[in-house]
Specification:
Layout: E1 3-7, E2 13-16, H1 22-31, E3 39-42, H2 48-59, E4 63-67, E5 70-74, H3 85-88, H4 98-104, E6 107-111, H5 124-132, E7 136-140, E8 145-149, E9 158-160, H6 166-177, E10 182-186, H7 192-203, E11 207-212, E12 215-219, E13 228-230, H8 235-247, E14 251-255, H9 263-272, E15 275-279, E16 282-286, E17 295-297, H10 309-316, E18 321-326, H11 337-342, E19 346-350, H12 357-360, E20 375-380, E21 388-390, H13 394-406, E22 410-414, H14 416-420, H15 426-431, E23 436-440
Helix pairs in contact: 1-2, 1-7, 4-6, 5-6, 6-7, 8-10, 8-13, 10-13
């Protein structure tokens, strides 16, 4: 297991390299399995999650070839309808292979998905939707697999999600693309990554239209063709490098981006007094003086993204006053707080009064038996110092790297493999901005 050694207190300056969106890349790999023809995807991030998904495709009978940051996928015929338990436990999006397997083979055997443990994240909303499309599916506690079959093929249906679900919406879109007839998805997710997937599928010959912000209509087609597609920048990487610039009192430019998908983050930067400048060819992020405290509540798009709240918590340790973060998307997203406390952060947990929790919380609040806290108060400014830190999940890892970059002294971060799931060679890209960071092979 590798570790990072970070000597903080150094301003970051320069131009940050942002890679393709992890959340888009993983879903497009699954979508590529809907056709027998070759699909080429450009600007893919070479992260461990992407490589795991590529391995699953190979196991299913596909060919996956890499050429720098481009990948070609061709799955002429499935050699298996079963996903490896070993691979599935590593990554949550493995269950999305339900869609191409059911569409092309008529059956699928999928393990209970793995990934970061930031909450229960049940897939019951996807299962309910697939049942509407004629799928018979049951979970076997004996082998830990979902066994699914579509005896009459996938059939178009009308389905309304009870709660917002990003990957649930995408899985249903994938299933409906080759289904017989029309599928209407209501209360569907509207993240930019969902629309990017829709654009990719339509380029392959699908017939998908977003009729309203949260209504998607899919008219099934008989087959899809191969195509070439370029993935856009990762929003989480943009926020990570933006916060890195501000928390270290530096100045970083991110090329080829605009405020699309970043509105809530940029609005929050404006409220706290952080510096950003929108230009024709990108956005500049910089420190321009003392920061003001903020109140932030996470939500699904177009709200403040749950993946941003950890980096935002680090930023608010530098603000003059009391900031709050209310997490409404996942029930266990504050694991990083104890690690920040080791570094001198003054953070306390609390649960705000919520009159209508079923409407406010996107997770199943009645199933939250562990009595997690869903909000924090951050008292600033705090002078962060070095510590020995343990990374528990991907986004917590980015949070702790940011804290170590801003802290005085030398910090040691263990569990770097979690970061490798979503950031390609993060330490090398930070070094180019002046960070004193190194990876040590254990």
């Amino acid at each position: 297991m590798d570790k990072f050694i970070i000597k903080g207190g150094k301003e970051l300056r320069g131009e940050a390299l942002i890679l393709g969106s992890k959340n888009t890349a993983l879903k497009i790999l699954v979508a590529a399995c809907l056709t027998q023809e070759e699909v080429v995807v450009e600007n893919v991030p070479l992260i461990s999650d992407f490589l795991t998904m590529a391995d699953i495709i190979t196991h299913l009978g596909g060919e996956v070839k890499f050429n720098d940051h481009a990948v070609s996928v061709k799955l002429a015929k499935f050699s298996s309808e079963k996903i490896s338990l070993e691979k599935a436990v590593e990554i949550r999006t493995s269950y999305m292979f339900l869609a191409p397997l059911l569409a092309r083979v008529g059956k699928a055997i999928i393990p209970n998905p793995g990934g970061c443990r930031i909450g229960a994240r049940p897939i019951d909303r996807i299962i309910d939707g697939l049942k509407k499309m004629g799928v018979k599916i049951k979970y076997s506690s004996r082998d830990g697999y979902f066994h699914a079959v579509a005896p009459n093929g996938l059939i178009g249906a009308k389905y309304k999600f009870s709660k917002n679900t990003h990957t649930g919406t995408e899985t249903m879109i994938l299933a409906a693309t080759l289904a017989k007839g029309r599928t209407v998805l209501e209360n569907a997710a509207q993240e930019p990554e969902v629309d990017e997937l829709i654009n990719f599928l339509n380029q392959m010959g699908a017939n998908i239209v977003r009729k309203k912000p949260r209504t998607i209509v899919i008219d099934g087609v008989s087959n899809l063709k191969g195509t070439r597609f370029r993935i856009g920048a990762d929003r989480n990487e943009i926020v990570t490098f933006a916060v890195a610039a501000i928390i270290t009192e530096g100045d970083v430019f991110v090329r080829d981006i605009n405020r699309e998908g970043l509105n809530e983050f940029l609005d929050a930067l404006g409220r706290c007094g952080a510096g950003f400048e929108e230009k024709k060819n990108g956005i500049r992020f910089f420190y321009k003086g003392p920061l003001k405290p903020t109140e932030v509540e996470t939500s699904f798009y177009p709200g403040f993204m749950t993946d941003w709240q950890g980096p935002w918590a680090v930023l608010m340790t530098k603000a003059n006053g009391v900031s709050t973060i209310h997490e409404t998307v996942y029930e266990n997203r504050f694991i990083y707080v104890e690690e920040l406390r080791k570094m001198g952060a003054n953070i306390e947990f609390y649960n705000p009064e919520v009159k209508n929790p079923e409407d406010i919380y996107n997770f199943n609040i009645k199933d939250d038996k562990s009595k997690n806290f869903h909000a924090v108060r951050i008292f600033g400014p705090a002078e962060l110092h070095n510590a020995i830190l343990t990374i528990s999940d991907l986004r917590a890892g980015a949070t702790l790297v940011l804290a170590a970059l801003a802290a005085k002294g030398e910090s040691f971060l263990f569990g770097v493999e979690h970061l490798d799931r979503g950031y390609e060679q993060l330490e090398k890209r930070l070094k180019k901005l002046g960070a004193r960071i190194s990876r040590v092979l254990e």
